[in-house]
Amino acid sequence: MSEKKPFDFTKTIQAVAADGKRRRLLGKSLYAENIFQFLCQQTDIRCQLLLCTDFGLILGYTGSPALPDVSGLALPADAFSKLQRAAQVYRLKGYIIAAPSETSDDLVMEKSLLKLQSDMNQLLRILDENEQQSQCLLRSLDSMRNAISIYDRNARLLFGNRTFCSNFQIEDLDTVLGMHIEDIMARNSLKAYSMEDNSSHMKMMDVLKDGKEVLDWEVRLESPDSASNALLVSNDMYPVRDNLGRVQGMVELMRSRQQDMTRAKKMVSFTAEHTFDNIIGHSAVMRERIRLAKEFANSPFNFLVTGESGVGKELFAQSIHNYSSRRKGPFVALNCANFSESLIESELFGYVGGAFTGASKNGQIGKLELADGGSLFLDEIGELPFHFQAKLLRVLETWLVTRIGSSKEIPVNVRIIAATNRDLEQMVEDGLFRQDLYYRLQVLTVDIPPLRDRGQDILLLANSFLHQAAEASGSSVKVLEPQARNTLMEYDWPGNVRELRNVINRATVLAKSGSISHDVLETAMYAKGKNHKTPLAGSPGERLQKRRQAVDDAHADLMREALNISGGNKKKAAELLGVSRKTFYRMLEKYTI
Predict the structure, then answer these.
(1) Is the entire prediction scored with pTM above 0.90?
(2) Burial 31-54 (b: 16+ CB within 10 A, else e)
(3) Which tens digits make up the pLDDT trace of 268-287?
(4) Are 16 and 64 in contact (CB under 8 A)?
(5) How far apart are CA 166 and CA 221, in angstroms?
């Protein structure tokens, strides 16, 4: 006689039926249940039998017809453990047939149960062979980086590929097939929040209800172990219909945020093309600036590149990026002078669908997110609207971005490289630029000298531009006559390298022979119809002072015009110029108006 304490099948079945949550049986589990019921009918077995998977999911039960149907319900862990200890167990591949322990004392019954075990094993083996063929297509989806899942109309999982299982922390797909998606998430303590409104409502329920596809639905998937490093994904959800057009289920394609970022970056080519090798300049001052930029490039701090318009600040910015440890990351550029305050916020931070009038229904990823893992180049930072500067400062302090229309913060890892041709320190003093933002940006600074202060580089640059022009036109390289070279060296070049390139390009078009004369060059230099003028005289310091005086005169004229428009009202004049009254009075005193 067995010494096992009998397992109470009836009591366990009643308890499971009362408390359990039913799953839909699918695929192999459904076939196993049908085989079990068929063989039990064909075999003279007069006892209670329980068929379950080797992780405790009940597939079939034979016994009292008065007991409820428990197929698709799971045995509690303690009950499943007791079943394996206290019942007579017949093991199959992936399944268990349990019978009362006293059946082992009945030789006829034992023989019938062994035959049932053998027949089921044989049929399951055949089933395995057929299933391998039928599952070949679905299993091939395991090779995809995107997560793919299929659901029935009640949001119960029918299939999920390997990436889906990884995202949802599922070790064995068979253990969750037929479960409701919310139960799968609850089992692994997962939570999903919409990036649009931060709600936990699952959009797939709307797709199954309304039958309308949803594309690019962004979700933050969190677990207790990764709340601070949640998985950001973008979902495409497509309803599946029968021949009558009724929704029978749904297919979901899930992409990681990083995949979306990579795709977006490829579409707009967020790469830095230039390196320090592309910077032409043998003058001592340029060699020193390049040495300093290389020394700073691998630091984690923000970088400020200053210099007059046209000196090559973006060339330096790209070179710094490509010389740094972030070289494999994106290089994203944004010219702050091209956008109003409202537009620059959406460009930098992004927005969710329908966040404002005219917004794309699919939303937009901001430049800060696109630059994650790389560098963000903010050109003309001095033109950044004053009221927006506080928002940018907040990001630089926390490295968290919130899209317009959303309340969810997105962490970013970005190095800022800013550039300006303005005197930010003076702008801070005049109240036009935030002091705290200025100090955040200028941790490391490189000032690019104007072309007039690096005279020996002018001919090197001109020669390079001549070769580029020849390559672009498919013609031979033109040369500068001696007097033309002297003209280049004597000119002040207020537009710096950019102006020099434009002049050389125009001269190559105007020159009818293989050489560029002094007259052709002057025509190219004053192509807008201005009178020819001699280069500015005096030392570099004197020439710079003249430029500063011209700027001061322009400021004074601007203030006089504001006072004229406001009828002499200084408060209104200050508002017209966008400065504080205190700054306006200080400027009045400075320019003796």
Answers:
(1) no
(2) bbbebbbebbeeeebebbbbbbbe
(3) 446 788 899 899 988 889 99
(4) no
(5) 12
pLDDT in tens, 168-216: 989 888 888 888 999 899 888 888 888 776 778 889 999 999 999 988 8
CA–CA separation, 179 and 24 (whole Å): 7
The structure tokens listed for 285 are: 């001052």
Q: What average pLDDT does the chain have?
A: 83
End-to-end CA distance of the chain: 115
Output the DSSP codes for 526-565. TTTSPPP-PPPPS-HHHHHHHHHHHHHHHHHHHHHHHHHH
pLDDT at residue 529 tops 70: no
Domains of the chain: 9-134 (3.30.450), 141-258 (3.30.450.20), 269-447 (3.40.50.300), 453-525 (1.10.8.60), 541-590 (1.10.10)
Our separate counts of H helices and E strands in the chain read: 23, 21
Give the DSSP letter of residue 227: G
**Residue carrying structure tokens 């390049």:** 290
Instruction: Provide the CA 323 distance to its chain's centre, in angstroms.
Output: 23
Give yes or no for a contact between 393 and 435, defined as CB atoms under 8 angstroms apart: no
111 CB burial (10 A radius; 0-12, 13-18, 19+): exposed
**Cβ-Cβ contacts under 8 Å for 358 (sequence gap 6 or more):** none
Cα separation, 579 vs 571, in Å, equals 10
* pLDDT given for residue 528 in this prediction: 52
Across 351-355, 403-407, 505-509, least confident range: 351-355
State both tokens at 109. Answer: 């019954």
| Residue 337 CB coordination number (10 Å) | 13
Pairing of strands 49-53, 95-99: antiparallel
